[in-house]
TrEMBL record:
Name of the protein described by the UniProt record: Adenosine deaminase tRNA specific 3
A Pfam family matched in the record: dCMP_cyt_deam_1
Top-level taxon: Eukaryota
Cofactors named for this entry: Zn(2+)
Similarity comment text for this entry: Belongs to the cytidine and deoxycytidylate deaminase family. ADAT3 subfamily.
PROSITE patterns assigned: CYT_DCMP_DEAMINASES_2 (PS51747)
Length: 338
């Protein structure tokens, strides 16, 4: 069969002209929250393990297991090499002028070997990404279980040139569909659904709201994929650019859905490329169709995959997927220029 890439003609452009960035969950993308704590210099290094043991007994910091109890002293030329976290300021709300004796009852922690306390800001949560970890560590050392995939993705380096070339080809197909829809008076939004293992476009669609208010480009594409599997409910015959490009039998799913049944389900293992960030309805349809990844070009004010909501990362939904933004962003942006 003729390679699909020959069917798509678009203005040539450089894969270096855009970067795909991941759209992470709120927890992964939020700022580092800090809370106040008392720390104190360890004057006698040999007392460190005893002090840590006794402080852990008195102030266990159970809610903050990510915090290291001891850090190397940051000040240059400091006479003491280590500092220890004594407690959160909220652990001793009655202490107005903190001294080591007011913070530590003498029968629980032997204070010899500890200097006078001072207030520090410490990270309130376990960092989830390298940028969060680097910011948090400036305040107080913390543990971090790095997800290398996320780290590389945040640097915009997850996809190699060959992968970017394929991604660009798919987005070009979505752009061509958007233009075809626009020529018929529709909103300029186009989408394609791709089997990334077979490197084939399954279905291509554009906004068809002239016919039906719910026929957004993503909904059109999902319906076309369902049609390719013997389902679907709409006819897009009036829109020649909306079509199934690969029959279901030609495009085996790469990952069977193991959640509810062993049968592949609509978009299991498939990627969606869409010129504009999907709305809530389309994002929920993508959840239900079990899409694997979504790539979009430009953000949208009502977008549900990063701008207004992050539906792809909702823990209380039964399916989550990766989202990347910025694919051919300039071309996608230009769609709305008359
Ligand atoms: Zn929509």
């Amino acid at each position: 069969m003729e390679p699909q890439r020959k069917r798509w003609k678009g203005s040539p452009c450089d894969t270096d002209s855009w970067i795909a960035y991941p759209v992470l969950s709120d927890e992964q993308s939020q700022d580092v929250e800090l809370i106040e704590a008392f720390a104190a210099p360890i004057l006698n290094k040999k007392e460190t393990s005893r002090l840590v043991r006794e402080l852990n007994g008195l102030y266990p910091l159970n809610e903050l297991p990510h915090l290291k109890r001891v850090r190397a002293c940051k000040k240059e030329g400091s006479p003491h090499p280590l500092e220890v976290l004594v407690c959160l300021t909220s652990d001793s709300p009655d202490v107005k002028v903190a001294s080591i004796n007011t913070l530590l009852p003498s029968d629980r922690v032997r204070c010899d070997g500890l200097g006078e306390p001072f207030v520090v800001k410490v990270p309130a949560r376990l960092p989830l990404t390298r940028p969060q970890f680097e910011l948090a560590s400036k305040h107080w050392p913390t543990s971090f279980h790095e997800d290398k995939h996320v780290t590389v993705a945040l640097r915009g380096e997850l996809f190699n040139p060959a992968q970017k070339a394929a991604m660009q080809m798919y987005m070009m197909a979505a752009l061509n569909a958007a233009k075809a829809g626009k020529d018929m008076g529709m909103e300029a939004v186009g989408a394609v659904i791709v089997n990334p293992v077979m490197e084939r476009i399954i279905a291509v669609g554009h906004d068809c709201r002239g016919e039906h208010p719910l026929h957004h480009a993503v909904m059109v594409c999902i319906d076309l994929v369902a049609q390719s599997q013997g389902g679907g409910c709409y006819s897009f015959d009036r829109y020649p650019a909306c079509q199934i490009l690969s029959p279901a039998s030609d495009t085996p799913h790469c990952k069977p859905d193991t959640e509810a049944s062993s049968q592949p389900y609509i978009c299991t293992g498939y990627d969606l490329y869409v010129t504009r960030e999907p709305c809530v309805m389309c994002a929920m349809a993508l959840v239900h169709s079990r899409v694997s990844r979504v790539f979009y070009g430009m953000a949208s004010a009502d977008g549900a995959l990063g701008t207004k909501f992050k539906i792809h990362s909702q823990r209380d939904l039964n399916h989550r997927f990766e989202v990347y933004r910025g694919i051919l962003s300039k071309h996608c942006d230009d769609l709305n220029i008359a």
